Amino acid sequence: MPLLKSWRRKRRLERVAIDPALWQRVIGAYEFLSDLDEGERARLHDLAVLFLGEKELHGAGGLTITDEIAVAIAAQACLPILELGLDYYEGFVGIVVYPGQFQVSRSELDEDGVLHEWGDELSGEAMPGGPVVLSWQDIGLAGAGYNVVIHEFAHKIDMLHGDADGYPAPHAGMDAERWYRVLEEGYERLCRQLDAGEETAFDEYAAEHPAEYFAVMSEAFFTDPILLRDELPELYAELALFYRQDPAARLERVERAKAGL
Ligand SMILES: [Zn+2]
């Protein structure tokens, strides 16, 4: 990391903290954040402080960005990079938040040269080199296997080296061949299952594109990890190596503690 950037970050961490009551409220509102141990929470807090210093949140459609909204987005967005670092979100600054789903206009030139234009209603969008756009209402719908913040920021991780293709570069020390194979086979298997009319345990939207598969499976990895580990153990293991976290073990630890074991 360049020296100036690391100095700036260190200085910010010495001077800025998130209001502890607000931080507790946000952590308490999301089960997958409540499960973090003390050390992980402290690191998530510091990452969220840096995130809020380096990113710019803008309200759109009449929404005003409150501290509550900013911290809720920062805390969730920083979970996937807890062990990777903020540089995984390099290359963009803006985060635009709408009160609810937002309209985007699409256009596509077909092979006959005819321009098709249509509108889409979205709960989130991530553009290469551009902002992340989020619906605050959909952020509020977060639950097991559904998390729009993790979804869009997983796209950003995927976009670190160009367009989102569903295959972010594996780390040194990972078996690259296995990483790409497990993602590709997982995506193809899901498409086959849906074509055959079979039920799947995960959001069918994952079949839209390998990039959506990576984003949806990242949502599951962090917010429904035991299901993902049971259903797709190979994919779970690869994502655990990639994100350098084991959320299923984390959840089991918390459940054992609750049960007094
Ligand atoms: Zn997506």
Short description, anyone?
The chain is α/β, with parallel strands linked by helices and 261 residues long. The chain has twelve helices and six strands. 36% of the residues are buried.
Describe, in plain words, how this protein is organized in 3D:
The protein has about 260 residues and is α/β, with parallel strands linked by helices. The chain folds into two domains: about 1-100 and about 125-160, Cyclin A, domain 1 (Orthogonal Bundle); about 165-260, 3-Layer(aba) Sandwich (Collagenase (Catalytic Domain)). About 50% of the residues lie in helices and about 10% in strands. It has twelve helices and six strands. It has helices at about 5-15, 20-30, 30-35, 40-55, 65-80, 135-140, 150-160, 175-195, 210-225, 225-230, 235-245, 245-260; strands at about 55-60, 95-100, 100-110, 115-120, 125, 130-135. The strands form two sheets. It has a four-stranded mixed beta sheet with strand order 1-2-6-5. α2 (about 20-30) crosses α5, α4 (about 40-55) crosses α5 (about 65-80) and α9 (about 210-225) packs across α10. The radius of gyration is 19 Å and the shape is globular. The model has no long low-confidence stretch (mean pLDDT about 95). Zinc ion (ZN) binds near residues 151, 155, 212 and 215.
